[in-house]
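Something for you to look into today, if you have time. I want to see for myself how the chain folds. Leave the record below and I will have a look.
***
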Amino acid sequence: MIQEPEPYVPEAPEPEATRRDAGVAESARANRGWWDRNADEYQIEHGTFLGDDRFVWGPEGLDEVEAELLGPPEELEGKDVLEIGAGAAQCARWLAALGARPVALDLSHRQLQHALRIGGPFPLVCADAAALPFADGSFDLACSAYGALPFVAEPREVLREVRRVLRPGGRFVFSVTHPIRWAFPDEPGPEGLAVASSYFDRTPYVEQDDAGRAVYVEHHRTLGDRVRDIVAAGFRLVDLVEPEWPAWNTSEWGGWSPLRGHLIPGTAIFVCERD
């Protein structure tokens, strides 16, 4: 049973940041632990921007209300929808309010505790996106706003699983850090505007402890890699959205900021369909 969160406990000293290989098992273990440790801080820092029942695709603030990437809101009623990497399930809550039947899935038990704290009339499932615990053809739609795909070593495994649980004609929409950002320092100011590394270097970004154990892993795929992964998994790519930074958004979120957002894309949203 998912329990409500306990008071926040400060995390351990800062780990070492490096670029090195990290496989499927190491990435999953590290990221499950990282999100369990940092879920409280994440929700405190970003909860106001995300809201309790808002569907935001990324730090730019592109809202599904206006984007309609899953389809017109009036057509979502009665649809079975899987949210992957749901966190506190803000997107699932928005979907439920429109009459959809969402399921919120996350690797992190702690993130789902925050989903329970906020509440909602839908199931919460703690599972790995590469091994979805659902029968074939269980959902009409699937979505993921910065969930799962950036953190897995084999994204095609996740994409194949998502396709498996979708019904024919089903749509999967997911957002990730725009691949071009990997060539720039992750800084919101002017220092984040100069290319610092090769865009084509796919070596994962790893944070590790004193013993060399990964405690956070993020994987880089180029735009071409993402397209090939989508096609190889059996999807058809129908749109690629690169949100522009809106004038109303004056906030910074890690390396995302108005300065950088007006010059280079920060988010890539892939709209995929299963034939």
Observations:
- The helical segments are 24-50, 64-67, 90-97, 109-118, 155-165, 223-232, 258-261.
- The beta strands are 16-19, 80-84, 101-106, 124-126, 139-145, 166-177, 205-208, 214-218, 235-241, 267-274.
- The mean pLDDT is 95.
- The first strand starts at residue 16 and ends at 19.
